[in-house]
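Lecture 7 notes: from sequence to structure.
We start with the chain below.
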Amino acid sequence: MSKMLALVILGLMVVQLIKPLGLPGLRRRADCWKLAVAALAAISATVLLSHGQ
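Predicted structure tokens for the same chain:
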């Protein structure tokens, strides 16, 4: 699951660099780092939920 999540967010980052998504907080190409932070948080949550039990 975390690998698929990483690939989806990596794809979003590539799209953000080519043409900004236009979402609040993602209006410039330089905002790609925000997606990387969100990916780190999402993958960490996935790992904690799957291995924390």
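Points to note: The mean pLDDT is 83. The chain has two helices and no strands.
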